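[Primary structure, fold]
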Amino acid sequence: MSETIHHQVVIVGGGTAGITVAAQLTRGWFNRRDVAVIEPSDKHYYQPLWTLVGAGVVRKEVTEHSEASVIPRRVTWIRDAVATFDPEQNTIHTRDGKTITYDFLVVGAGLQINWNKIPGLRDAIGKHGVCSNYSYATVDSTWEAIRGFRGGNAVFTHPSGAVKCGGAPQKIMYLADDWFRQTGVRSQSQVIFASALPNIFAVEPYRATLEQVVKRKQIDCRFRHDLVEVLPETSEAVFQQLDTGEQVVIPYNMLHVTPPMGPPDFIASSPLADKDGWVDVDSSTLCHKRFPNVFSLGDCSNLPTSKTGAAIRKQAPVVVKNLQAAIQGLPLPAKYDGYTSCPLVTGYGSLVLAEFDYKKQPQESFPVDQSRERWSMWILKRYLLPLFYWNGMLKGRM
């Protein structure tokens, strides 16, 4: 017979979203709320720094902490993985055979990287110039590829569909271009940005700045190109041109791949999912559209904004306030306006800090023109944001 466990609030996911909500829910000396986090991993990563790991700025070890060290003190850690949801019965079944029941559920399980959707990719990563910043295991391969590049085609991809931080696929390209210039190989190189998107960035005035960056750096942008196969034997990348449907083959000497991403399978196959597999929530209250005791935030939700840690920083207080109201049987008071942020690294020592809302209107935090490339914003990303993350967000203080 399976083990049955009950908690007042169950949080699925021990990443940025789950831990931030758990910390805020249990913060305060007299807070005795019964909260559990379901998370199978024993490591917690600060993924925004992986761009700088891939560019040789920081060691990847500084992005890793133990999961145990970030679980809030008064939270029960259930080290297991969700197999299925039964929201009609307020029940979760886990991989290890547990049955977990709840009064309220928060789903913050992140997204899933689908390496196998690109034939040839998984076997090619880490060999002959093929690399990716998108996992702890592969991020070192990017710096190796950049350091070892001696000229030719350096190709950087951006897939169709959702990705973690919409600007990340191009950040590493700008850093690589800087490195190629410093080491004298840029003159015998072509830097190609093959992106499934129709333009470099969706929000003005940041797009105008980035268009000038790619012009200055002489980057060959090939929009509406979606990677569909890697041919490591011939060092070729195969793309589908999304407007015409034709296949385009681009030879590479270095290939940085942003892999396809999507909702975790255990969410996509559940009653919580919308037609595309994401948790189906109201974009303002973050409450599930069909199950009023379920909330979701972060990458696994269908919120129509960029999937970033900065977005979670604004989403978490909305979930917490609305969950506290729901527990008391009160109307949901808090509203989320779609705020997100993307620190767009444009080179070693320069960064554009894009901040915007659902309407793609800038919602900036500093009294300067953030659409300009700034050294001060680079310092923010390199040194301050990691401190805010480990000592602020994950402690429920921000």
